[in-house]
């Protein structure tokens, strides 16, 4: 095994899941070195200790990171908010990840132990955590294509997006959706991402459909988004709020009436390349099939739309076009979620399949003699600043 070319070892490693890959790499220093690009392709940070460890790693190693996930539970979130150093550590890491493609800053959403509760219950009301962008002046992320941000301060939008000129996917989630003033911060930020293809953002103000004599804030926001981002193909407007009794952050639906709906349809039509649309609207007075038809008739590229229901799922419709005819088909969520998976061995070249089988057999046999935790083995082969992250 150790005399195989690095490319072949990496090909074998590509057929392991992450846990198996870590065990495989921990068997020798040579294997760990060969598999390091795969081990570090996606790095998950869920504590201050891990954040510190990665910030102490050399750029030669962190340049291998393609996906960086920072996931905050309650304890980590409280430390992040209370400690000034967290944002600075993140800035150090981002400077040392020039090949980063995806960055996610997420909050755990487990019932009754989610950081979202800090926003709902704090006094004065907390609207977001700071990422320390004041020390990002020399950070550039030219290869970043996907950005996922939850519960950050709206004032951080523009400084972050300014450093991501090639962004194609953006997900933003703030408590109760973006208010109009917070949206103003987003609007200036979106000017730095003109090629954005997918935008997921919750907005406040949907209830304004109940008051047709007033200007609909959401319609105005959609018009301004369309002006900034004419290239958007997927628009997800589902809004979430923290449900005190459920103890977690959940999708919510807003009652929509026919009043002002034409204005809403015309705002959606301003996205010329829109293919998929997700809405947090449900109604007893608007037929979702007819509403989907109205939207599809003014959005020539649209092929999928979903509406919120009072239940926990959405109602999905596929849009089919033939000549001048438009057909709306209800899409069964059960059918969507049914996935047929092929056996992985059927896709493997025979030599790789044989090596994979041999290595799997070796793991099974060695597990009878060695019962040491993975992180103990890795601590011998990997730099101390890395093994806590890889083994997590």
Write the layout of secondary structure elements.
Blueprint: H1 6-13, H2 18-25, H3 29-39, E1 42-45, H4 48-55, H5 59-62, E2 67-72, H6 74-82, H7 85-95, E3 102-107, H8 116-121, E4 146-150, H9 157-161, E5 169-173, H10 180-190, E6 198-201, H11 217-228, E7 234-236, E8 239-243, E9 248-252, E10 254-255, H12 261-268, E11 276-279, E12 281-282, H13 288-298, E13 304-308, E14 314-322, E15 325-331, H14 333-337, H15 350-366, H16 374-381, H17 384-390
Parallel strand pairs: 1-2, 2-3, 3-4, 4-5, 5-6, 6-7, 7-11, 10-12, 11-13
Antiparallel strand pairs: 8-9, 13-14, 14-15
Helix pairs in contact: 1-3, 1-15, 2-3, 4-7, 4-17, 10-11, 11-12, 16-17
List keywords for this structure.
single chain, about 400 residues, alpha/beta, eleven-stranded mixed β-sheet, two-stranded antiparallel ribbon, 17 helices
Structural notes for this entry:
By secondary structure, the protein is α/β, with parallel strands linked by helices. It has helices at residues 6-13, 18-25, 29-39, 48-55, 59-62, 74-82, 85-95, 116-121, 157-161, 180-190, 217-228, 261-268, 288-298, 333-337, 350-366, 374-381, 384-390; strands at residues 42-45, 67-72, 102-107, 146-150, 169-173, 198-201, 234-236, 239-243, 248-252, 254-255, 276-279, 281-282, 304-308, 314-322, 325-331. The relative contact order is 0.10.
């Amino acid at each position: 095994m150790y005399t195989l070319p690095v490319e072949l070892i990496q090909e074998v490693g590509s057929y392991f899941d992450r846990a198996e890959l870590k065990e495989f790499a921990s068997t020798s220093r040579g294997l760990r070195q060969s598999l390091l690009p795969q081990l570090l392709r996606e790095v998950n940070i869920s504590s201050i200790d891990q954040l510190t460890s990665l910030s102490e790693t050399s750029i030669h190693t962190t340049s291998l990171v393609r996906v960086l996930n920072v996931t905050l539970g309650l304890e980590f979130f409280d430390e992040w908010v209370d400690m000034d150093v967290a944002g600075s550590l993140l800035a150090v890491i981002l400077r040392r990840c020039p090949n980063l493609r995806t960055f996610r800053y997420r909050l755990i959403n487990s019932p009754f132990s989610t950081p979202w509760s800090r926003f709902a219950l704090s006094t004065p009301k907390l609207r977001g955590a700071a990422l320390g962008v004041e020390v990002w002046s020399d950070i550039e992320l030219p290869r970043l294509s996907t950005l996922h941000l939850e519960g950050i301060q709206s004032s951080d939008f523009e400084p972050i997006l300014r450093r991501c000129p090639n962004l194609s996917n953006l997900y933003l989630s703030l408590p109760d959706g973006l208010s109009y003033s917070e949206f103003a911060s987003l609007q200036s930020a979106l000017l730095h991402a003109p090629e954005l293809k997918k935008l997921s953002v919750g907005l406040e103000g949907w209830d304004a459909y109940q008051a047709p004599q007033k200007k609909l804030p959401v319609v105005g926001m959609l018009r301004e988004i369309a002006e900034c981002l004419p290239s958007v193909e997927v628009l997800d407007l589902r809004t979430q709020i923290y449900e005190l009794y459920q103890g977690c952050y959940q999708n919510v639906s807003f009652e929509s009436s026919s009043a002002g709906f034409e204005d809403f349809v015309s705002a959606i039509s301003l996205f010329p390349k829109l293919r998929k649309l997700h809405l947090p609207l449900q109604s007893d007075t608007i037929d979702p099939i007819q509403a989907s038809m109205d939207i599809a008739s003014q959005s020539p590229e649209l092929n999928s739309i979903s509406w919120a229901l009072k239940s926990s799922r959405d109602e999905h419709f596929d849009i089919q076009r033939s000549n001048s005819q438009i057909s709306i088909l209800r899409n069964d969520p059960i059918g969507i979620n049914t996935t047929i998976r092929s056996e992985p061995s059927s896709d493997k070249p025979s030599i790789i399949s044989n090596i994979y089988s041999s290595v799997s057999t070796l793991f099974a046999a060695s597990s009878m003699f060695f019962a040491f935790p993975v992180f103990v083995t890795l601590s011998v082969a990997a730099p101390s600043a890395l093994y806590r992250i890889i083994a997590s």
